[in-house]
Amino acid sequence: MERKTFALGDIVQMKKPHPCGTNAWKVIRMGADIRIKCTGCDHSVLIPRLEFERKMKKVLVQAHPENQDQQG
Length: 72
Hints:
36% strand
């Protein structure tokens, strides 16, 4: 199975929505643990990296999209 890629500042969708009804989270800390903040109510959660990768569905918005058309 391919490993999911995400970066600091990305907005991600989790498999289950937050109790406030929003299913968009911003990645605000990366390391052995990932801290995400709900974009609806600003509640933050600290999740171990492996658990986060299992529960993340997809990246909705990339913070720094890669420009692949640039050649250098």
